[in-house]
Design goal:
By secondary structure, this protein is α+β, with helices and mostly antiparallel strands. The chain has a single domain, classed as Alpha-D-Glucose-1,6-Bisphosphate, Chain A, domain 4 (2-Layer Sandwich), CATH 3.30.530. Helix content is 22%, strand content 40%. The protein has 4 helices and 10 strands. Strands 1, 2, 3, 4, 5, 6, 7, 8, 9 and 10 form a 10-stranded mixed beta sheet that branches. It is globular and about 45 Å long. The N and C termini lie far apart (34 Å).
Length: 197
Amino acid sequence: QAYLSYSNIAALTHLAGKPGWDITKTLENVKIWTHEEGAVLSFKVEMQVKVPSHVAFSLLSDFSLRQRWDRHFLTCEVLQAVSEEEKIYHVTSAPMTGHQPRDFVILVSQRQPCRPQEPYTVAVRSVTLRAVPPSPEFCRSEILCAGFQIHSNSSSSCTVCYFNQVTSGVMPYLAANLTGSSKSIEDTALECIKFLE
């Protein structure tokens, strides 16, 4: 478990630090970036939020609040509180047209910064839990690496970066988005800012 948790945080930190991000969209408080490497597409959504970084961290690390701003989350229940910093959740998401509803079993690891210039981190990855085998009504999907980094800008504002390394499981949600025919990434980002503020 300690290894899983460490690798969860490390994978997100590694993804965030990669060179070669291309900006695809700029709005007033939101920027969307993409990164392609072989068959792996990652995206980053950067949001400017008018709340202190520790407040954004406490709200974003509690995934039971996620349905309040992310309409892709239908249900989210804690399966196991592994430690104060790690929880395992079962998430179900709304079906896309022509697709079965999906579900995910995810480990959410949260870390406070060790040094002032470091970000708060909330890392997410799929895990396998014997107690929750795949069920026929859902298509069990996988999150390779996703999560938030929260950088403090001032005592009352922060930059929240959401990352997701996209697998074919998440692709139907994003394909329309990145080609510009859907605005769900932007809308979700704006909902997230509104929720945090």
